[in-house]
Amino acid sequence: MKALYRLYAGILRRQLAGLPMPQHVAIAMDGNRRWARGAGYDDVRIGHRFGAEHLELFLQWCSEAGIRCVTAWVASADNMRRRDSAEVDYLMHLTETVLADHVRRDHNWRLHVAGQLDLLPDSTARALKEAVEETRYRSGAGELTIAIGYSGRGEVLDAVRELLDEAAASGRSAAEVAGALTEDDIRRHLYLPDLPDPELVIRTSGELRMSDFLLWQTARSEIAFCDVYWPAFREIDLLRALRTYGRRQLERSS
Ligand code: IPE
Ligand code: MG
Fold this sequence. Notes:
By secondary structure, this protein is of the alpha/beta class. The protein has a single domain (about 20-150, about 200-254), classed as Decaprenyl diphosphate synthase-like (Undecaprenyl pyrophosphate synthetase, 3-Layer(aba) Sandwich). Helix content is about 50%, strand content about 15%. The chain contains ten helices and six strands, in the order H-E-H-H-E-H-H-E-H-E-H-H-H-E-E-H. Strands 3-4-2-1-5-6 form a six-stranded parallel beta sheet, with helices on both faces. Helix 6 (about 120-135) links the parallel strand 3 (about 110-115) and strand 4 (about 140-150). Helix 1 runs parallel beside helix 10, helix 3 (about 45-65) packs parallel to helix 5 (about 85-105) and helix 5 packs parallel to helix 6. The mean pLDDT is about 95. The structure holds 3-methylbut-3-enyl trihydrogen diphosphate and magnesium ion.
């Protein structure tokens, strides 16, 4: 089975050669709890642990495929507000330990954080900020963004708020701001304005929704919906999504 899998991965890699590749891939890692239940665990936190550890492999596959920019959706603002506190506490614990530890050790990535950090416990926000600082000057590294306490509408709202505050501070009237407003003005106030938009978004677990993920940045993205639960996501699932993306780009440009 393993040999067959390796053979198939090799075929997919060869098919990818010469196809257009996304620069930035965003991943909505969904299905941790269903995976845990399906694997016979009563405690769904086990799914979250496997899920958090799985990101390390995904990042390695991305590096090997030449993808230098990844956004991983760890928890939405809604997850933080609506899930029971023991589950959220555990997710934050995993973020501080498994996730932050990994980016410290793995010199292939510079860390960025997108989201409403005030929704996070202080210790989680601190651990992430420290990891961002520690990885900031890594030369030759790719860009990894952790979306946590994240809401796409919230991000656009925050951007508009900041833009209006800036305009008020500089003494411009609302009419002046409105008359000159461009998409780029909004972009400049997003959490990470310097990153390219993701050309490809992957969502696992068979859910066919965007759920407020990267609302502004995905206006022109390809979306790959993949049936497997996140902890079971394989390299061949990534390679297939990249192949579909590449073929569609070719068709669009022909
Ligand atoms: C994704 O898995 C991780 C988070 C959203 C924190 P879920 O926790 O959404 O698991 P399912 O979708 O209920 O199986
Ligand atoms: Mg889910």
